[in-house]
Structures are given as structure tokens and as C-alpha cells.
Amino acid sequence: PGFITMNPGYAGRTELPDNLKALFRPVTMVVPDLAKIAENMLFSEGFDDSKSLAKKMVVLYKLSKEQLSKQFHYDFGLRSMKTVLVMAGELKRQFSDIPEDLVLMRILRD
Known about the structure:
By secondary structure, the protein is mainly alpha-helical. It is built from five helices and no strands.
């Protein structure tokens, strides 16, 4: 079995020719639940208040994506959020006496 991932909406990409399309079955993907992913990541990094902090992170990233500059080098997607949450976990382990919400604030500021 073979798999092809197509993102025809991206710049420079083209549609797959019909004769090749016939060889593959389409699969529909859904947008991941960022709140659940962030909550599980924070929990796995040792945060006790992961649910509340995850909600705040998702809202922050959503508002940033909507209201800040649309320039190409700004990334407010899942990959960026994951990097921030992993760094927050490292900071939390390094400074266990700092409240969790301040750990997240500090990592976002830095």
C-alpha cells in the first residue's frame, strides 16, 4: 500500500493528475483539537493545572493568529505551540517553586 499527502492549496503545489488520482483512495482529515493536545502536553510535562492553562494557551494562539501580522515568518500553529509547551516543561522542572501560570508567562515572554 502507498500513501500520498497532498496540500494543493499551498503555493507552488499542483493537483495530482487524474490517472494517478484513480490509483489512490481519498481520506478526509479533521483539524486537531488544540486544547486537548495542549492539555495532554502540559500534563505530561508535569503541570497540575493543565486544563486551565491549555485553554489560555489556545486562546492566546488563536487571537495571535487572527489579530497579529500575517507575515510568513510568524507561526501560531500546533508545531509552534508544542515547542513552547515543551520549553515550559523544562522551565517548570528547573524552577519548581515558580507558580505554573508564571512559568508559562515567562516562557512566552522569553
